[in-house]
Amino acid sequence: MDTGFYHSQLGLLAFVCLLLLLLERYLSSSRPPSHVSKEPTLEDTLETGHVVQLAHPRASALNTLMRKYILVYAIVMGADWLQGPYVYSLYREQYDFPERIVAVLFVTGFLSAAVFAPLVGVWADTYGRKRICLLFCVLYATTCALLLFPFFPLLLLARVFGGIATSILFSAFESWLVSSSSNAGLQSEDLSAIMGRATLVNGFVATTAGIVSNQLVEWNSGGFRSPFVASGGLLLLAWLVISGSWSENYGGGAAQASTDIFQVRRLGAAWRIVAADPVLLVLGLTQTIFEGSMYLFVFIWVPTLQESSLAPSFLPLGYIFSAFMVAMMLGSLLYTFVTAHWYRPAPAPVVQAHARSASVVSLAGGGAAGDSSLVLHAQLSALVCAAAALAFAACAAVGAGKGARAEHLKFWAFCVFEACVGMYYPVQGMLRGALIANEHRATLSALFRVPLNVFVVVSLLTGVSSARDAVLTTCAVVLGISSITTALVVLPRVDALPPSRTA
Fold first, then answer.
1. What pLDDT, on the 0 to 100 scale, is given for residue 40?
2. Are 299 and 404 in contact (CB under 8 A)?
3. Whole-prediction pTM value?
4. What does residue 426 show for φ and ψ, rounded to 5 degrees?
5. Are 222 and 460 in contact (CB under 8 A)?
6. Using one digit for the tens of pLDDT, what is the confidence trace for 39-60?
7. Three-state DSSP class for 473?
């Protein structure tokens, strides 16, 4: 296998990404001032590369929240991405477990996430998002420590802790951001810009993490433990930064905390909200399908490329992973171009813009986060799912073909999927922030993760080498279904909302 192909593709993707970043900066600096508002937006702060020092309270709040959230987000995602290229290889190659046992380990993590996800969301809303984020650092650092020992019971325990930590990572951190943004009186376009920029920073961090993890493995003579040690160090740093810089915020239901530790009533109330609102049901379906496909991708991308490679043992996994992460950055940049340059709605008034469910908005007769912006994000959600479906379908069509052509086609199909991931997170984060009430935000986000993890578990139990193509095909089909349901259910309802008005 010529590893030079992956080095050159990483360089090509990085070059294109740099050109787009320079173009974005040029467009941002040459954009005329808004006629609607003379206040600087977070896009203005971030896209020009300068922290604007203004006396205006909103500008100060924007800069402060941006620094607090993106710093922590970069550290915790760096800790997560350091492990990404070598989880499968650690189990399969260094510890020599059969692929079926490796699947069991992955399944254990997803089952843990499925069981604890709704409780994690409730506890975050009730006991505090900052406190739960600190718990994430402790649990994930413990996971890294346990992974250093090739003892199956300890590895199972590590997967349990990792499942809980993953549920926290993808619910409590976003909930803290949205609630902090609302408490600071920021506009919805500011929240959208923070999420888009966080995804872009995440791409830089992930690309760097892939290269660093590759070098750590090489320096460790091919041993796959060293990235997990480095990840533990970053989690300790994240704990210190969160402790020192974040303030606490809550959802509703704190009064029930001492009498209902498993928050059964609160979970029931959250489910009734979802069941009564078709838009929230489709948001949950999209989260289940897209993020489930993403987690399956984590498990199958290494063996899928190895299946077509003429020299599978010599694949530069760290560099391949970095190429995927640059593709994710390109997706994030595309989101920024669409929302900040190609389509730029008028700033929404400072109301409870991202603290109401779709059903509440409809009953109230007011828009959430600006109706035109919501329509755009719903359209992007449908397009992202459709493109991801095509990427998986292309990979499945190649099948078990051997040779450079088949391997390269799979690689580029996976790059397209990662670009979709780069758009997915800010798009879905904006939709959830606009349509889910603050008091139930972490609870609902975590509740959606239950079917997500069930979907992943069922797929992994059949998704070993004999059924890998079937899993890819299934992901393509269900992503297509998600795209269609978003277009048929979410778009008409969001488009029917009346224009936003000042409170």
1. 47
2. no
3. 0.70
4. -70, -35
5. no
6. 444 444 444 444 444 446 777 8
7. helix
